[in-house]
Batch of 3 targets.
Target 1
Amino acid sequence: MIQLRINNESFLYDAYGLVQAFYPGEKPKVVPAWEEPCDEADMAAWSAGEDCIGLHVGRDAIGFYMDGTKQGSLEIDPSDRSDTKNRLKRLIYNILSQRLDKELPWGTLTGIRPTKIALKKLQAGESREDVASYMRQTYLTVEEKIQLSCDIAERELRIIGDSKGKYSLYIGIPFCPSICLYCSFSSYPIGLYRNMVQDYVAAVKKEIAFVGEHFADKTLDTVYFGGGTPTSVSAEALDEIISALEEHVDLSHLREFTVEAGRPDSITEEKLRVLLKHHVGRISINPQTMQQKTLDLIGRFHTVEQIQGTYALARRLSDEDIAAGGKGFLINMDLIVGLPGESIEDVRDTLAQIEAMKPDNLTVHSLAIKRSARLNIEWEKYENILQSADHNIMDEVMASARRMGMEPYYLYRQKQISGNLENIGFAREGDEGIYNILIMEEQEDIVALGAGSACKKILRNPDGSIATDKKVERCENVKDVEQYIARVDEMIARKKELYV
């Protein structure tokens, strides 16, 4: 087991994430060295143990210790914490990269939003070349990922526009047909919690009324129903929530209305007709894989044929709506690479089946092993069949998306992500998911309703520009459904304190 010892607790998070990226599947043991005096000699002696990494942050230099000796050091300016953090991470990266003969495509970047770096600099008027040079020198990012970040940031700039005075609305439906092996969200099996749905809908409607009253002077930009699986509730429940939106909130300037329908075993013609009636313009039908053996293993109790049938149903209803003068649906499909037991041949087959269906968007996630997911809790049961996603698989994904005429338009990363890769959304020009960009790049307020949802308030300067020192304030709703229903007035009060 890798052990990590550092004498300055404020840099532990940064160091730990990068060390863990070099040792996938391991959970480094942290040995505190900030509670008592620890000089460089102490750190060197300790690092003589097997697989021990010691980091000493001094007044004017940082040192990296393994095998009982200092492996490298860098001078620092202790008054500049950001620069010290980046120097520390570059020191770790250079030594472990050489020692393990391993390159991390994102370099020292371990955060979830690498494209934000490029977007922020482009918004400030810097050139693409300036961005590339900064990412190369500061984070040691490889050229392919730098260019991907710049491509996406340039596309995002065109889509975001002027966000002043706008907000987006997230409505969480935390119920699911079943809980998947890899899932860590606060989801509730609908079979066990169906008797709570009506009270839950009433609580969400109460939050919607609050939004209608206190955000009347702002422009609602996008609406996103997430979960859970929003279509795990009945058509009547969906109709009731969306009708409350129409009653209380001005939807006349809405650029996008998305319902992440998700599981095909939760989608019916009646529910799709409700969504079309209310002018929902985007839905997700999420296979995650088209391999039946994997669907069974990860706890998605539906068939490949159900995925194909549900997609065909949604496309037919969308086409009928368009023929009748409506706008129909754009349909996104989600996949996960790195699922237990899946080879690159399985991924190729899944991609071929997706191409045959011709969705409008494709979102591909690299499996992330979350602390509270069953996959992590029962790790010993699955570790021998986990195949880490790699660049060959992501190359297959990129090629498949481009055969469908799609290019990347948003990207984010997660802790413990397979292959230290990324999650990417692909779309044809004009079909991008606006909410996906806004939530990742933090460009406008996100008002979030429902159990477990989190509001983001974007802090702005007096001229309306986004603040750079402290950019976001948050408030969260409780995760437990029963508590949310009982305490919805408290959840509303939290929002009032944050926004009003």
Target 2
Amino acid sequence: MRPIAISLIICAAVSVAVCAVFGIFPWLAPIFLGLALAVNLLIWLVLWTFSLFVDKKKVYEKPSNFYRRMLNFGYAYICEGARVKIKTSGTEKIPEKPFLLVSNHLSQLDNMIQCLVLKKRPLAYITKESLFKIPIVGRTIWRCCYMPIDRKSLRAGKSAVEAAEDYIRRGVLSVGVFPEGTRGDGIN
């Protein structure tokens, strides 16, 4: 589901919930919904405006802290809307230097949660090329040094791995990868 669709669903759910929980008159629901939509559209307009400053043809040497925070804000917004509660343990074992994060892919929230848990450290992913075509998201993840991979081309895979190795070796950022390439059940 696209982030904008998720936002609209969240707006509708919040306005209905506010009216139901607080026993507010039913005629106030459209007002709450309108306000929620207006705020939501304003947020998306700001994000879209900032995404226009990203040059998709340029290969960036290091991720932008501003765009990384913007991405983490979006991740937190989606996780909060999905009512995801993050509990961590063993974070003291995470190395201080950049590292390769290899993980299975159980849900669409995997990389979002990992980025939120590791938000104090730059983390980018080797990810499918189609994500870079999503408005706002594509430019933002490009500026955060995410590496596209064409799943049909071995050469593209090699160049993404080489870029990841370079980022880690130079101490620029940690790199996450889901070797399954798509969501799996984590068992097979």
Target 3
Amino acid sequence: MERVVIPLHIGDSDIELAFDQGCVATADAKLDLAEIEIELKHGDRSEVARLAKKLMRITPFTLSVRSKAELGYALLEGPLDAPVFAEPVMMAREVTVADAFATAGFACLRQIAGNEGAVRNGDPEGIHQMRVGLRRMRAALSLFKDMLHDRKVKRLKRELKWLTEQLGPARDFDVFVNETLTPYRAKHPDRQEFEILEHDLERTRNAGFATARAAAGSKRFCSALLDCALWLLDGDWRNDTDALTQALRKRPARAFARDELARRIRKIGKRGRKLERLDWRKRHKLRIAVKKVRYGREFFATLRCDGRKAGRKLDSALKELQNELGILNDMRVHLERAREFASAGKAAKKAFAIGCLTGREESSASDVLTKALAAGKRLQKAA
């Protein structure tokens, strides 16, 4: 590895700018590298952010979330573009709310950026895991929203929403084909109408994968990740002079987590009591609320805001409620996606096949709703 190091003194800060070029290699694999590293030796981290932004205007580059050592181990263990799952979020018990948000945000960013290769290669699990990372990031923005008032938040949310939408069709159709159509086809291999539907769904799923690959390889994707990283590092949210916001930034994250998650769980419990009367939109919102709490509990897990036994009961009830609400939501998504084919060629045969598949799912909706209600009651007892 060849390295050129340029020491910089900017304002009152000392920064090391390093250019690395070479490769990471094992006995069976090799990866060429060209990297820029910016290390703050002393001073204000805002200078690091400003320097990175200047470099972005000079030359295009992507955000690297793995060290050279991590890349080497990844080469030994398997393909570099394997799906990346959520990592444990490590927080010290005395961490402040501001640092807790940054820690959680960077963990989400690592999962999003870490799945770029898998998405560009059309790996279904990589697409799913990038979507999970995006949902976790959006959950973090929601959990800490009382501290985030700068204008960059709206733009960041818009970019996260855009990327989520680019990945959505690939994931939705992949789940529909693998979990609904394929099992049914295995039981009825001679039904011609399902063969027609399968062909069209495969074509649409492939188009969804192409859209996802294009998004992950776009300048917009790279720019969004870099902007997010720099914002987490030194965004205006860190310097808001509002007295209440300043107090919140400095508040112990353990106390904040306990209060914020308890408040959200109470709201979920109230809505869960009338679950059978909610339309699909309100059920979907409830499901998102449950997800945010689950992600929040993952973010704050090392702070141990509750006892282990009580925490396990709470996590179990939240997981079950989310799973059942997720099944109900999948049924709705499958119905919407399937209807897109009913107006195309050979509509009658495809409509019949769609009716068989979605009708089969709808027949189990009552049982799923009953399980969701039971999970909601368990959650109220555990809270």
